Amino acid sequence: NIVKWLKKEGEAVSAGDALCEIETDKAVVTLDSSEDGILAKIVVEEGSKNIRLGSLIGLLVEEGGDWKHVEIPKDVGPPPATSKPSVPQPSPEPQISAPVKKDHTPGKLQFRLSPAARNILEKHALDASQGTATGPRGIFTKEDALKLVQLKQMGKITESRPTPAPPIAPTAPVPSQATAGPSYPRPMIPPVSTPGQPNAAGTFTEIPASNIRRVIAKRLTESKSTVPHAYATADCDLGAVLKVRQNLVKDDIKVSVNDFIIKAAAVTLKQMPSVNVSWDGEGPKQLPFIDISVAVATDKGLITPIIKDAAAKGIQE
């Protein structure tokens, strides 16, 4: 979901600037720009919900470019509104919004291209699949495109020419999709294990669990039932943190807001040792070390790696 756009159309954008706020299943995060330029067009307005993963939400142009007359690629447009129930269309397949990519060739790896990289590749008749994307979140940057141009000039790669699509064999009529399952806002992840066979009527179906999920369930149950809990909330102004983070991005040092929060929590525990304690059933025990566990979602479930001696580590570590 697009919560809020932090930049307006025609506004200059620097690398590391927050473009918009995106709401995921777990939190509201900011989407940062990977390059300098101008926000030419907002394709998906704020307040839009259930945006498909990988959809085009905005267009950037290089500084000095004509941002007022930028055109949205024909194969990419704003996603349909989700507030009203959709009516089945006669077309066999719904259109999928994806990052801009011209002359798509089946079998080639797809990249998210920055505006500058796209212009360079089109000018020199190159394809991003001939190189490697080094930008954040797999973005193919201007520097990646320039490397491809250098390789072409050295004769190590050739121009990319579109491959004609194979003829489509006639097929039987496809049943209507009106009875298909619900449309999900992001790709489904294959389950770790296959559910067991249904039991007799009126009973439950047992779903096999992996070892990691059993350990997670055990640890969470122990934590909730054996450790006294206390909760506190506070509002913090992160303006200075975001400014430092932008400066680090310019120096090619990539850190997240979570890194600052972990560091702040570790330093606070060092300054307030009475809070850095554990409970053993009889009373609190003050700990001589500060180790912080961070929850990380993976395809196979939730894992909690531990950062040892977090107070002594730098932000980048």
TrEMBL record:
State where the protein is found: Mitochondrion matrix
Under InterPro entries, the record lists: 2-oxoA_DH_lipoyl-BS, 2-oxoacid_DH_actylTfrase, Biotin_lipoyl, CAT-like_dom_sf, E2/Pdx1, E3-bd_dom_sf, PSBD, Single_hybrid_motif
> What biological processes does GO assign it?
pyruvate decarboxylation to acetyl-CoA
**Cofactor(s) needed:** (R)-lipoate
Q: What is its EC number?
A: 2.3.1.-
User: What are the entry keywords?
Assistant: Acyltransferase, Lipoyl, Pyruvate, Transferase, Transit peptide
GO terms of molecular function? acyltransferase activity
The UniProt annotation puts the region (Disordered) at 74-107, 158-181
A GO CC term? pyruvate dehydrogenase complex
Pfam families on file = 2-oxoacid_dh, Biotin_lipoyl, E3_binding
The residue ranges flagged as biased composition, category Pro residues, are 76-93, 163-173
Q: Where are the transmembrane segments?
A: none
Which EC class, in a word? Answer: transferase
All copies of domain Lipoyl-binding, residue ranges: 1-61
Query: Which residue numbers delimit the Peripheral subunit-binding (PSBD) domain?
Result: 112-149
State the PANTHER family in the record: DIHYDROLIPOAMIDE ACETYL/SUCCINYL-TRANSFERASE-RELATED, DIHYDROLIPOYLLYSINE-RESIDUE ACETYLTRANSFERASE COMPONENT OF PYRUVATE DEHYDROGENASE COMPLEX, MITOCHONDRIAL-RELATED
UniProt lists the family membership as follows: Belongs to the 2-oxoacid dehydrogenase family.
Write the protein's name: Dihydrolipoamide acetyltransferase component of pyruvate dehydrogenase complex
Organism, scientific name: Rhinolophus macrotis (Big-eared horseshoe bat)
